Structures are given as C-alpha cells and as structure tokens.
From TrEMBL:
<dbReference type="GO" id="GO:0007165">
    <property type="term" value="P:signal transduction"/>
</dbReference>
<keyword id="KW-1003">Cell membrane</keyword>
<feature type="coiled-coil region">
    <location>
        <begin position="337"/>
        <end position="371"/>
    </location>
</feature>
<dbReference type="InterPro" id="IPR057870">
    <property type="entry name" value="HR1_TOCA"/>
</dbReference>
<comment type="similarity">
    <text>Belongs to the FNBP1 family.</text>
</comment>
<keyword id="KW-0963">Cytoplasm</keyword>
<feature type="region of interest" description="Disordered">
    <location>
        <begin position="406"/>
        <end position="453"/>
    </location>
</feature>
<keyword id="KW-0206">Cytoskeleton</keyword>
<feature type="coiled-coil region">
    <location>
        <begin position="146"/>
        <end position="173"/>
    </location>
</feature>
<keyword id="KW-0175">Coiled coil</keyword>
<dbReference type="GO" id="GO:0005886">
    <property type="term" value="C:plasma membrane"/>
</dbReference>
<dbReference type="InterPro" id="IPR001452">
    <property type="entry name" value="SH3_domain"/>
</dbReference>
<feature type="compositionally biased region" description="Basic and acidic residues">
    <location>
        <begin position="413"/>
        <end position="423"/>
    </location>
</feature>
<feature type="domain" description="F-BAR">
    <location>
        <begin position="1"/>
        <end position="262"/>
    </location>
</feature>
<keyword id="KW-0254">Endocytosis</keyword>
<dbReference type="GO" id="GO:0008289">
    <property type="term" value="F:lipid binding"/>
</dbReference>
<dbReference type="InterPro" id="IPR001060">
    <property type="entry name" value="FCH_dom"/>
</dbReference>
Length: 525
C-alpha cells in the first residue's frame, strides 16, 4: 500500500510518524547501551570476585585437597564465563548499538532531505495558487469597475441635460474598463490553467514520489530494527557453547571432589611417623629407699646404644646439639623425609640445568676449535670450570640430603623392660658434650661427668616410651629415673639410673616429678 496515493494529504502526519520512527530507534539503541553496560559491569564484578577469592600464595603453599582444587577450577571457569559476558557486551556495542546510532544519523539526514523536497513542492504550489488568486481578484475588480462605467455611460446617454462631451467621455471610459476586464479575464484564465496543472503535478507526481521515499526510508528503518533484534540475540547465542563448557567445567570440578583422597592428603600432610604411646609402666616409689643398689628392672645398656643418632632420641648418651632448621630436624620423621625429598628434587633440577649448560658450553667450544674465526675456545674454559664446580657442589648437597633421608627413624612407643645390656662404667663425667666432639665407641665408657661428688636427687621421672638402640633387636626402657639437673631450655634433662649411671634424656619423652624439698612444689611436665 503506497503512501503517495493513500496519504497524499497527510504530509504533516507523515512528518510526525517518521520522527517517531527515528525516536523509537534511538530509544532501542539506548536500551542496548544500558544492557551492554550491565554486561560490562557484571563481567567486571565477576572478575573482581574471582580475584578476591583466588589464592594469593604460591602454588607450593596451596592446599592440595580436591575440594580446594575444585574450587579454584570453578573460579577459573567463572573467570572464563566473565570473559564471555565481555564478549556479549562487545558484540552488542559494535553490531547493535554502534550500528543503530550510525543508522539513526543517516535516517535523520535522509528524512530532512525528503521533507525539504516536500515543503519546496508545497511552497511552489502555494505560489501558483497565490498568482491565480491575485489574477482572479484583479479580474473581479476590473469587472466591477467596468459595470460602474457602463452604468455611468447609460445614465448620461439618456440624460437630455448631459452634454455631448460628457457622454463621449463616459463612453470612452466604459470601453476602457471593458477592455481591462477582458485582459484580466484572460490573465485569470491563464493563471487558473497553470495552477490546475501544477496542482495535478503536485498531487500526482511530486508528493507521491516524496512520500514513496519516506515510505522506503521508514520501511528500511523497520527492517534495520528487526536485524538488530536478531543481532542482539545472536550476540548472546554465540557464547552459549563456551558458557556451556564453563558450566560443564564447574560440574566436572564438583565431581572431582573426593573425600577419601582429601582424608589421605590430611594423613600425608600431618603424619609424624611416630607410633602411639604404649602402656604406662608401674611406678615403684619404694626404690627410692635404695638409690645405690642394683635393681633387676634397671639395666646397664652401653652408652653408645643410647645415643641420639640423626632423628633418634636415646635415653642416655652424649647431649646432642640443638637441631638446625636447615636439615628439618625439628620436624617429625615423616614430615622431615618429605621436606628432604623436596629439597633433593629442587637440587636435582638445578643440577640438570648446570649439566645442560656444561654440555652447551662444550659444544660451543668444539665449534670454536673447528672454526677459530668464530671465537677463542679458551675463553669458555673459565665458565666451563665454574659450571663443573657448581655441579660438584650440587651433587654434594644432594648426597648429604639423601643420607639424611636414609637416616630417618621413628621412636618406638612400646614400653618394654627387657633388652637393656648390663654395662657398669665408672662415673668419670665432665658434663654435657659439646658439638663437634668425636664419636666414641658404643661400648666405651662416657667421661662426660667429672669425679666430683654426685649431684643430689631433686626428683624422679618415668619414661613414656622405649627407644630403639643401634641394634634393631634391642629396646631401651626404664621404669624410674632420678632427676639430678633440670632442663635448662635445650630440651634435655640430666638423670641418674638406679644403678648410678648418669646421662641426659629428652625432656619431652619423660614424665617428671620434682621433690617438694627441692622446688617447693611438685611439677609435672
């Protein structure tokens, strides 16, 4: 249905309608702009949320629990999901909002041009009408004047008192006015004919063509809005497969949560390697009545069998030096083994790098020897020597850590009374050994303490565990020991067996009771 034939007289209404169409297009563009702003803000908030809950520690310090790993996987998928929301916003910004705004400007310019053509055609028709109307009015006015002159002439011609000159003058005026009326009539007829022709052109050619252009413009606007509706939906639909993969990744992360594996990781992370403590031995306080006599329950195991070796704690023997944090001696055996193995792996990687560098330098040296113009092969020798030296240092460090790993032992939690070897040694003791002193034969008597009078007993204690000796078939335990010197902060307490043998025992592996007479109150550790 054509606007030109059906709406030939609705120029003003079509003017309003085309303006409404452009306003509606811009309103939809504003809607798209607000929608893409929402998408951008949503994506930004999602990324900030992911950043807030992402681990800030290094990967080595992160928990290895499946629940944590799955949560981090979900954060990664959510970050990818946020990226797809940004893609949606970009698609809407370029293919919908930007296109609508450009098209709106084109529509405004085209509409303005068509309306100006319509107004010009209307103005020209109005001009023709005014010319026709003026000629009509002139013709009407000249006819009235001719009629008046005719009446005057007839009156004078019939008047017997009128002179001949007056009659002739009235007659001449009558003829003049009649001629002028005829000319006005012809002019009016011509202008009327011209106006009718222009009016026909206006309503049958000019206005239909202009209205057709406006109709085409409005229909193209409608088609463009429909296309942008489709683009609006396509921007969302394009990312659906990737978003589906993100959601599938989240579901897979949820399925990867394994409670048994997490429990195993807890065991692996905190397992000390120690065995649970055994039964507490019977405490025979009547033994205090005979402090120097022998007791069948107290055995004289050679001092060397009760020394502290690596991570082993011996009830008696030389007082060891405080373990350094570098060899992880402060950790339980199982954790120490893991830390040492981790260090071995790191050193092995560094060693491999040095070996690769050495091989590369040797190849370069061979090239220089074959092609002296490329460089001096002797210039590489210092670097090769340095690399070899680094390799030897790393091998030495790896060997030391491997030895420490092999020396890892566990304290035995079983309390047994057998296995102590009788070994009577003179009490020629000079005090706790200092770090760096040579290791004596296990069956050689220990002269840590001097020949001064024996220290007074300030309390007694009982061993909470028995300890492995150097012989794997030998167990060491003691029912009651006498305290002669308290722990001075280094983790070791000086004690005396009922046989009179003295030595140091780890404070954390005995239960101490101090005499009231020596400390004023009974202390339990």
């Amino acid at each position: 249905m054509s606007w030109g034939t059906e709406l030939w007289d609705q120029f003003d209404n079509l003017d309003k309608h085309t303006q409404w169409g452009i306003d509606f297009l811009e309103r939809y563009a504003k809607f798209v702009k607000e929608r893409l702003d929402i998408e951008q803000n949503y994506a930004k908030q999602l990324r900030n949320l992911v950043k807030k809950y992402c681990p800030k520690r290094s990967k080595d310090e992160e928990p290895r629990f499946t629940s944590c790993l799955s949560f981090y996987s979900i954060l990664n998928e959510l970050n990818d999901y946020a990226g797809q929301r940004e893609v949606v916003a970009e698609e809407m910004a370029h293919k919908v909002y930007g296109e609508l705004m450009r098209y709106s400007q084109d529509l405004k310019a085209e509409r303005k041009h068509h309306l100006q053509e319509g107004r010009k055609a209307q103005q020209y028709l109005d001009h023709c009408w005014k010319q026709m109307d003026n000629s009509k009015r002139k013709f009407e006015r000249e006819c009235r004047e001719a009629e008046k002159s005719q009446v005057t002439y007839e009156r004078l011609d019939n008047d017997i008192n009128a002179t001949k000159s007056e009659v002739e003058k009235a007659k001449a005026q009558f003829y003049l006015r009649t001629h002028m009326a005829d000319e006005s009539k012809n002019e009016y007829a011509a202008q009327l004919q011209n106006f009718n022709a222009e009016q026909w052109k206006h309503f049958n050619n000019a206005i239909p063509n202009i209205f057709k252009k406006l109709q085409d413009m409005d229909e193209r606007r409608t088609v463009k809005i429909g296309e942008t509706y489709r683009s609006f939906a396509e921007a969302e639909r394009k990312v659906i497969p990737i978003i589906s993969k993100c959601l599938e990744g989240m579901v897979s992360a949820a399925k990867a949560v394994d409670e048994r594996r997490d429990s195993a990781i807890v065991v692996e992370s905190f397992k000390s390697g120690f065995e649970p403590p055994g039964d507490f031995p019977f405490e025979d306080y009547s033994q205090n009545l005979n402090r120097t006599g022998s007791d069948a329950t107290i055995s004289n195991t050679p001092k060397g069998d009760r020394e502290r070796d690596g991570n082993k704690l011996w009830l008696f023997g030389k007082k060891p030096k405080v373990p350094s944090l570098e060899d992880f001696s402060h950790l339980p055996p199982e954790q120490r083994r893991k830390k040492l193995q981790q260090r071995i792996d790191e050193l092995s990687k560094e060693l491999q790098k040095e070996m690769d560098q050495r091989d590369a330098l040797n190849k370069m040296k061979d090239v220089y020897e074959k092609n002296p113009q490329m460089g001096d092969p002797n210039s590489l020798q210092p670097k090769i020597s340095e690399t070899i030296c680094n390799m030897e240092k790393l091998r030495s460090e790896i060997h030391k850590n491997e030895v420490k790993t092999l020396k890892k032992t566990k304290p035995n939690n079983r309390v047994e009374d057998e296995g102590w070897k009788e070994h009577h040694t003179p009490r020629h003791r000079t005090g706790p050994p200092q770090p760096g002193q040579p290791h004596h034969d296990p069956h050689e008597f220990d002269d840590e303490f001097d020949d001064d009078d024996p220290l007074p007993v300030i309390g007694h204690c009982k061993a909470l565990y028995s300890f492995d000796g150097e012989d794997s078939n030998e167990k060491q335990s003691e029912s009651v020991l006498y305290i002669i010197e308290e722990d001075k902060g280094d983790g070791w307490t000086r004690a005396r067996k009922q046989s009179g043998e003295e030595g140091y025992v780890p404070t954390s592996y005995i239960d101490i009771t101090l005499e009231k007479s020596s400390k004023g109150a009974v202390t339990y550790i």
